[in-house]
Amino acid sequence: MRYYYTKNTLYVRGNFNAVSTGVDGGLRPVSTILNHTVPADFDHDDPLVYIQELLAKRGYENDAFGLLTAVWMKNLCVLQYDYITVFVTAGVTNPNPDPTKPHTINIIVVSGEGLSDAALLETIITATEAKAHALRLLGRDFTGTTSDAVVAASEGDVVHTYAGTYTEPGKRIYAAVLHGVMEAVKRHEDTVVRNRPSYFIYSRYGEEGWFEWMKEGCPYYPCHFEGQSCDFCYCPFYPCGDENLGEWIDSTSLGTKIWACSNCEMLHETRRARYLKEHPDATFEEVRDYV
After folding, report:
1. DSSP annotation of 41
2. Does residue 170 sit in helix, strand or coil?
3. Looking at the domain assignment, is residue 208 inside a domain?
């Protein structure tokens, strides 16, 4: 899975089995999931055609799921909890069916470990329960807006049959969506102000919980060398499997093998980081071998 964003659009790329409640939703393989900001007075005869035009501009095929929102992408929240990544934009001014208030809550859940079709569908339930919980904690007396949407996706062979709140993926999905919706609403309503998307990592170091990572004032800088690029603090190629850059080690907390690459400097080198930002679909080999 790879993701990047422009001023108005989040693109999530990969080889997904996915389900969507959004435009042209359903259950099928897709290579792109996008969330796009439209004007508050957006009026298009066919939202699907509009999304296909966005894909065509990037040179992407129509095997995609697209979501639309009036929330600015600078208020996007990205949350990483082990193999679960959640993307949330949230505006809550239209709990009633009022077309003059077009804000919505869009949630994209991506699992790096394969989910069965049933688990993908159950992810929608788990995410919706967490969204309702988040709104309640924010003091809202409604459980969502009239245009909310969820996309759930996974890559690889099926590892998890279910994704309810008692399962391992479900616990992570619930926690990430709960935290993400609250933080996304705060940003949209300017309770918390950021000028670019926010990144949260579920950390087990020190006090376990959510940690918002920001380049400015990062307590770990410089983790490699003075002047390093921190645009890709969390590598989009993880786990690359290149044993010249890392190795598989036993995880005492997870009871499985994990990819350890703390000494890798590939994407901290300014030239390679800049190249990947300019070519977000570049392959791992292309970036690794770039000079």
Report:
1. T
2. helix
3. no
User: Please, what sign has the CA dihedral across residues 44, 48, 51, 56?
Assistant: negative
Q: How many other C-beta atoms lie within 10 A of the C-beta of residue 220?
A: 9
Q: Which residue range(s) make up the domain with 252? A: 226-288
Q: Are 104 and 131 in contact (CB under 8 A)?
A: no
Distance, CA of 81 to CA of 75 (rounded, Å): 19
Q: State how far the Cα of 270 lies from the Cα of 55, in Å rounded to an integer.
A: 29
Q: How far apart are CA 45 and CA 32, in angstroms?
A: 23
Instruction: Give yes or no: residues 14 and 109 share one domain.
Output: yes
Q: Which residues contact 85 (CB under 8 A, 6 or more apart)?
A: 1, 3, 78, 79, 109, 110, 111, 112, 176
State the distance between the two ends of the chain, measured CA to CA, in whole angstroms: 24
Does a cis peptide bond (omega within 30 degrees of 0) precede residue 169? no
Confidence of residue 280 (pLDDT cuts 50, 70, 90): very high
Residue 215 lies in a domain: no
Residue 155 shares a structural domain with residue 250: no
Residue with tokens 């065509």: 56
Q: How far apart are CA 41 and CA 28, in angstroms?
A: 31
Domain end point (choices 203, 238, 268): 203
Task: Express each pLDDT in 134-193 by its tens digit.
Answer: 999 999 999 999 899 999 999 999 999 999 999 999 999 999 999 999 999 999 999 999
pLDDT tens digits, one per residue of 20-61: 999 999 999 999 999 999 987 787 789 999 999 999 999 999
Number of other CB atoms surrounding residue 22 within 10 Å = 23
Where does the pLDDT of residue 220 fall: very low under 50, low under 70, confident under 90, or very high at 90 and above? confident
Alpha-carbon radius of gyration of the chain: 19
**Bridge partners (DSSP) listed for residue 18:** 28, 153
- Tally of structural domains, the chain: 2
Q: What is the pLDDT of residue 99?
A: 58
